[in-house]
């Protein structure tokens, strides 16, 4: 994605004690992302099946976290998420929620609960009871 694929709005959320600020995608870029996510994820009525290419996940993470900060400092994904992949997945869900809120509305609540539980069991940490509430604001990059 080019830099013009990003808006001037940011979103803030907290995951496992770290505070993240991301730059939101433009409407065009978020629409393209949502369609790609729909093509990658298989969503059933009572369940959610992750059948996603790992390269797609990493490429999406790099796009969504391109201008991100964690605890007020630029995010270094390799350093910050080393050994904490389940935290990365939760952060990515927060990024998707901020950029494509109607995408997550299409996933049943029971499936979201299963996702949180699977991410928590992978890390041995408890998962948040709900996805955090992202807030948006105008910010010049």
Name the descriptors.
alpha+beta; 5-stranded antiparallel β-sheet; 6 helices; globular
Question: Can you walk through the features of this model?
Answer:
It is a single chain. Helix content is 45%, strand content 21%. The protein contains six helices and seven strands, in the order ββαββαββααααβ. α4 (85-99) packs antiparallel against α6.
Q: What is the fold's blueprint, element by element?
A:
Blueprint: E1 6-15, E2 18-25, H1 27-40, E3 42-43, E4 48-49, H2 54-64, E5 69-70, E6 73-74, H3 77-80, H4 85-99, H5 101-105, H6 109-123, E7 135-138
Helix pairs in contact: 4-6
Helical amount: 40-55%
Coarse morphology: globular
Q: Strand order, main sheet: write it out.
A: 6-5-2-1-7
Order of helices and strands: EEHEEHEEHHHHE
Stretches where pLDDT is under 50 for at least 5 consecutive residues are 126-133
Helices, by number, come to 6
What is the alpha-carbon Rg in Å? 14 Å
Note the main sheet: 5 strands, antiparallel
Separation, N- and C-terminal Cα atoms: 16 Å
Record field, number of beta strands:
7
Question: What is the count of structural domains?
Answer: 1
User: Mean pLDDT score, rounded?
Assistant: 80
Helix/strand-derived class?
alpha+beta
Beta-strand fraction estimate: 15-25%
């Amino acid at each position: 994605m080019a830099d013009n694929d990003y808006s001037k709005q940011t979103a803030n959320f907290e995951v496992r004690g770290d505070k993240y600020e991301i730059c939101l995608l433009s409407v065009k870029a978020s629409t393209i992302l949502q369609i790609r996510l729909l093509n990658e994820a298989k969503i059933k009525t009572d369940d959610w099946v992750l059948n996603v290419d790992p390269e797609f996940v990493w490429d999406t993470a790099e796009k969504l976290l391109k201008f991100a900060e964690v605890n007020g400092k630029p995010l270094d994904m390799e350093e910050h998420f080393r050994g904490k992949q389940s935290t990365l997945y939760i952060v990515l869900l927060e990024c998707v929620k901020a950029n494509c809120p109607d995408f997550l509305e299409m996933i049943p609540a029971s499936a979201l609960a299963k996702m949180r539980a699977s991410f928590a069991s992978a890390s041995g940490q408890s998962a948040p009871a709900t996805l955090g509430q992202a807030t948006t604001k105008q910010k010049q990059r």
